[in-house]
Amino acid sequence: MTVLVFLDPDYDDGRIADASQPQLMATDLGATRGDGIFETLLAVDGRPRKVQAHLDRLASSGVLLGLELPAADSWQRAIDTALREAGPADEQVVKLVVTRGVEGAGAPTAWVQVSPVSESVRAKRGRGLAVLLLERGYDSTVAQRAPWLLMGAKTLSYAVNMAAIRHAHEQGADDVIFTSSDGKVLEGPTSTVLIARVRDGGKELITPQLESGILPGTSQGALFAAAREAGWKLGYGPLVPADLFESDGVWLISSVRLLAPVLSLDGEPVSVSPALTAELSELVASVS
Amino acid sequence: MTVLVFLDPDYDDGRIADASQPQLMATDLGATRGDGIFETLLAVDGRPRKVQAHLDRLASSGVLLGLELPAADSWQRAIDTALREAGPADEQVVKLVVTRGVEGAGAPTAWVQVSPVSESVRAKRGRGLAVLLLERGYDSTVAQRAPWLLMGAKTLSYAVNMAAIRHAHEQGADDVIFTSSDGKVLEGPTSTVLIARVRDGGKELITPQLESGILPGTSQGALFAAAREAGWKLGYGPLVPADLFESDGVWLISSVRLLAPVLSLDGEPVSVSPALTAELSELVASVS
After folding, report:
1. Do B23 and A24 touch (CB under 8 A)?
2. Closest-CA residue of chain A to B133
3. Is the Cβ pair B137, A137 closer than 8 Å?
4. Nearest C-alpha of chain B: how many angstroms from A87?
5. What is the DSSP letter of A246?
6. Residues 6 or more apart whose Cβ sits within 8 Å of residue B137
7. B139 to chain A: nearest residue by CA?
């Protein structure tokens, strides 16, 4: 069952709406221009994970798009309302969406959606991925000189991300890692890239650097904090594809699918370590 | 007044929906992923202009996104229904939208929207534009090697186009011409670029070449056909910013705002010819 709760100044705890009925205006700029932002969280046993990290990223996406967002406590209350309305479940997907609103209205549309984790996501959890390296078209320095490209904002304009995943599926692959036009490793269409290096017993976890225009991964951030506690060294790119092939493990990490080991890149196998995957997955599970 | 007509297999002429009420599901992938395509037409005295060119481009966008679209005659009937329902008007905006549909449903959502031409667009018609040249981040050859970037498809993922226009407004400019990372002139966020060269009495109309990953402009295409009839030579890029400064006129052309002369680029004046603007505007008006 899907639950919708709109953030509405007239309803302190959010306005519950019938998710089986249309609830968006056809002139909402989210629908007609992909002009809005979103976050996707996982709730476990009714408790949303990493809420603050997601609200922080939503706020920073809002700044990049010049969108005025409801305050964090309104989101918190709307999330609580939606989860209460949805009832108990071991796992749920919590989506936060803000659009620029109905054309001409000048007020954003904002809602929380709670829905079950799909069977297909559950089935894929932990399963290794065949990944394609696909060019994202941008060079790794453009984010800094062209803020209008909205790099680093999690916008609703995800058509290219979706097309890249479809392209991978058509080629028999599962997912994608984007590369920049100057050959740097960026991110997945819906995930963050991680690699591990084990040298002389020391373990290092590395992710591409934010300056390359990628999204700050909330799951990567939480895992990094937990890994540091557990004695891992942490590193930030730049990474090139050769670094992935020479690593001791490559993963894609995201809030709902969690940690997924990469088995191959463009059909070439990469190092796979079930022990490292287990260790890192445990750290991911420990995040609240 | 806005009129909505959904393309619905159960309704031969389209299903009229109340545009004052929400008509889209919050889980429609158009709203949550910008995963869909659109066209915007102008109707004059109740007659939509260049319908076939827009339906052709919609179809080609559909191919690029792997979307199955309703047949052209369904669109034609839905457009007729919407215009009839809207009643007589000198000018109306007709929007065609197709999204990938509600998540999990596997069927696209498609509709026609008819609405008045906004006062702000009417007021801006024919007025000269201060334009910023902004980097689009892609090089001019990426479209050919990276089809997943959906270059040349008119998708609903317009957040960057909208951000670029906001950026221009913040700088006191009116509009934007995107350039590629290799310095080529591309297109406006919602328009096609044209320049004119007058040499020894011969007139040439030039637009950037499609291979650079820009949208095929329906208005540019119709104007080119009319200009050829009127004795103009036609040319297709590549163009660089210097070509714009050295031309005898620069315009942005689109279906609703029509032909708008560019007065300056990044604050530097370009050649402005009211005579050429009048001549080309007349050719634009002659298009049916």
Report:
1. yes
2. A146
3. yes
4. 20
5. T
6. A137, A138, A139, A142, A146, A149, B181
7. A137
Domains of chain B: 3-117 (3.30.470.10), 123-286 (3.20.10.10)
Model ipTM?
0.95
- Virtual CA dihedral for B146, B152, B157, B162, nearest 10 degrees? 120
Question: Smallest Cβ distance to B157: which of A17, A135, A160?
Answer: A160
Of the residues B32, B65, B95, B215, the best mutation for testing chain A's interface (the one with the most A CB atoms within 10 Å of its CB) is B32
Q: How many CB pairs under 8 A join A and B?
A: 188
* E strands, chain B, in order: 3-8, 11-17, 36-44, 47-48, 91-99, 109-116, 129-135, 175-179, 192-199, 202-207, 233-236, 249-254, 258-265, 268-269
Report, as an integer, the average pLDDT of A170-198.
Answer: 97
Q: Write out pLDDT tens, residues B27-69.
A: 999 999 999 999 999 999 999 999 999 999 999 999 999 999 9
In single-letter form, the type of residue at position A65 comes to: L
Question: Between chains, do B27 and A111 touch, taking CB under 8 Å as contact?
Answer: no
